[in-house]
Amino acid sequence: MKALIRLKGFAGVMFAVTALSGCGGGSSPTVVPAPSTINLLPEIKAPALVVERFSADGSLQISAAVTVDCTKLETDQSAAFNDVSHSVGLCYPGSSSPEDSTTSRVAGGIAVNDYNNDGRLDVYVTHGRNTLGKLFSLQADGRFLETTQAAGITSLSAGHGGAFFDINLDGQVDLLSIQEAPTVLQVFANNGDGTFSDITQSTGINLSKSTLSLAAGDYDLDGDLDLFFSHWQPFVKQDRWEFLWQNQGNGTFNDISDIVDIGTFTEEDSGQEPQLEREYSFTPIFADFNDDRFPDILLSSDYSTSQILINNGGTGYIDTTSNVVNDNSGMGGAVADYDNDGDLDWFVSAIGDIQERTTSPYSGSRLYQNDGDGNVTNVTDVAGVKQSYWGWGTCFADFNNDGYQDLFTVNGFDGMTEAQSTSRSYANYNHDRAVLYINNGDGTFTERGAELGITHTAMGRGLACYDYDRDGDLDMLISNSAQAPSLFRNNTFSDGNNFLNIRLKGKSINPQAVGARIYISLNGQQQMRELQLGNNYVSQNPVEAHFGLGDSQVVDQVRIIWPGLEGEVSELNNVEVNQFLLIHQPD
Predict the structure, then answer these.
(1) What is the pLDDT of residues 486-532, one digit of tens each?
(2) How confident is the model at residue 358 (pLDDT cuts 50, 70, 90)?
(3) What would the 3-class secondary structure string for 228-248 be?
(4) Which residues of 192-277 form beta strands (DSSP E)?
(5) Angle, CA of 513, 519 and 524, to the nearest 5°
(6) pTM to 2 decimal places
(7) Other C-beta atoms lying within 10 Å of the C-beta of residue 74
């Protein structure tokens, strides 16, 4: 049986005041006259921008056959979403052992980027337990080809998570692979020919703690990206190090974690360094939460320790968490402007009571609405998004392209130890369906996963929400504990609505312009996205902004505030819908 996979190709067009050569990921684009001579193309304001434009080709339909090792067929192809994992080659056995560590049982993520510069989004998948991470290259027919060995990804331990990030500033996206101890971290430099080399030792990043997630952001606004790691270890006291690493601008990093108000420490005793009472952090996200240009850190953490860490002008991070932040088992996290009021809000996925009792140690997920100054209101109950079951990876994404970002969360848990797993201590959380909350546009959400074809009940962990097949709507790629990932393709949920996808090409020390804000205006309304590198939970979406436009035919204005304290602004007017833009930062 064959499953139909539609993969839209792109015809690239570059336009600017100066001619350029080449366009990554496809045939070389042609130089066309300035936009003022082309009907409905963006009108470029000073300073002059270079904009690469990619239009979808709806005539291309690829049939992807189920392979020999992929006997499971797709789920309902008539549903709005359906599981196409086996049709695209994501089907292989995982590995687990009774001796697997507690941390490995909660690990497993997705990282997405185009590592081989062919214009398609590739993925690095980690599975937790004792399964090594795998690298996949997306092929022209919509299937994933495993390239782990050919690319030189020689993992030493089971994979926890990872991210694509140009760590040595050579213009190629490298791979940071977080693994089970004692390896903890391997850094693979992209050689530019589809292969990687291990450069871990040269980076200066020495991690000895069990590590799960990482995020990248320019905490000091010096132009390059710094790193933050989370270290969930509930049974061992910790010191204050290995969280925040400052980029030295030459491919090396220094540990400056002592400037982060990360938690409560014991008093110094007999010359011994103060110890963090416990370490429960799961998911860090760099985001400008109080609109002062400096990226803050939203840290989802277990045992009622989630934190809002406000950047003190690039000198350190201050814990400003109020008692409003009351999730008691924070795990995943997503930051976005879900209510289109111009500031960033924060969702923390957590454990929900299966019986939905009013008094329970499992009080569910939280949605924290921002007032624009970094102060939050708990609007979980009003929004109707409390139940995620044993929630892990989560994302905000406009799945129906109606202009409001929806909320998707995966879940599942069977114990921290083999004894708990075999005794089925957490049997109630073994087979819960992932939840899909659709934004109603009035501050509330409606859970519609079953109706729309979300059938995922595996042990979900990490998650990436992105347009896998570049057809203009957003799909979900889910990592599963000790199993192959699940790809839910968006078939029809956005039918009739338009979109605009924007990537930015920043300066060489921040080539994806992480931290930039992109605003669009249409029909008197505004949407905003901030470009982030990590997280959802041990994962990384591609660094791009997807906007749903409803039935609008033209975006009145695209406004970009580039990273940095100066807040350089670029604008495009009268932008045509249903296209992918790559906008270059002016020199």
Answers:
(1) 999 999 999 999 999 999 999 999 999 999 999 999 999 999 999 99
(2) low
(3) EECCCECCCCECCCCCEEEEC
(4) 196-198, 214-217, 226-229, 244-247, 253-255
(5) 170
(6) 0.90
(7) 19
